[in-house]
From TrEMBL:
Transmembrane segments: none annotated. PANTHER family: REGULATOR OF RPOS (PTHR48111), SENSORY TRANSDUCTION PROTEIN BCER (PTHR48111:SF27). SMART domains: REC, Trans_reg_C. GO terms for biological process: regulation of DNA-templated transcription. The modification 4-aspartylphosphate is found at residue 52. It is found in: Cytoplasm. Residues 128-226 bind DNA. This is Sensory transduction protein BceR. SUPFAM superfamilies: C-terminal effector domain of the bipartite response regulators (SSF46894), CheY-like (SSF52172). Keywords: Cytoplasm, DNA-binding, Phosphoprotein, Transcription, Transcription regulation, Two-component regulatory system.
Length: 231
């Protein structure tokens, strides 16, 4: 049974979400102290976190930053505010998805299932844990990329995007194909969200001098370049 940590201060909505998710055999926990969310997160050790943006004490962006300092657990944001920048900020902070309130519960369930499949199932089906790419070692299970310059840890979205691109190295992968692979059904995700995730991946890779190997092919998609061995 997957454990979900729901950071939502609307008591009525919290219980409604909890009851709906219980029907799908998810175990849902709430927050008892909104000034100490990270402590409760560490104690619960959830498989997925759902965070509302507007919260007492500190907003959801703050708690996402705190959680991301020591965990890559998948995070889904909720927001009742009609601000496009909220979604962009969420993705830049390492969130895996974003849901605008009010939402249909079928959409919430679909997004939760897609994230859980992506995060916890793909590595079981992928027999290759390590991949050497342009002098760097990509560890799909640990979500890390390491070379002589250093080592970076990627979010689940970022490592999965990199995995798909490397499976098709030196070939263009269309945006539509990436969206379907990542979210199972591209009706539930915006085109801009994919752009944010790829840009964030490239920015992380730039930290170890690999950013230039993820190319944007305008109007077509993305490509992971792989240099030929000189040996």
């Amino acid at each position: 049974m997957f454990k979900i940590f729901l950071i939502e201060d609307d008591v009525t909505l919290f219980h409604e979400i909890k009851e709906r998710l219980a029907q799908w055999s998810y175990e849902v926990y709430g927050v008892t102290d909104f000034s100490n969310v990270v402590k409760e997160f560490s104690e619960r050790r959830p498989d997925l976190v759902i965070i509302d943006i507007q919260l007492p004490k500190f907003d959801g962006f703050h708690w996402c930053r705190m959680i991301r300092t020591h965990s890559t657990v998948p995070i889904i944001f909720l927001s009742s505010r009609d601000h496009p920048t909220d979604m962009v900020m969420s993705m830049q902070l390492g969130a895996d998805d974003f849901i605008q309130k009010p939402f249909h519960f079928d959409v919430l369930i679909a997004k939760i299932q897609a994230v859980l499949r992506r995060v916890y199932n793909y590595s079981v089906e992928q027999p290759l844990q390590l991949r050497v790419w342009n002098g760097a070692t990509v560890d799909f299970l640990k979500s890390t990329v390491q070379n002589e310059t250093g080592i970076i840890e990627l979010s689940k979205n970022e490592i999965y995007i990199l995995k798909i691109l490397l499976e098709n190295s030196n070939q263009i992968v269309s945006r539509e194909e990436l969206m379907k692979e990542l979210w199972s059904d591209d009706r539930f995700i915006s085109d801009n969200t994919l752009t944010v995730n790829v840009n964030r991946l490239r920015k992380r890779l730039e930290e170890i001098d690999l950013g230039q190997f993820i190319e944007t092919k305008v109007g077509l998609g993305y490509m992971a370049k792989e240099q030929e061995s000189t040996e």
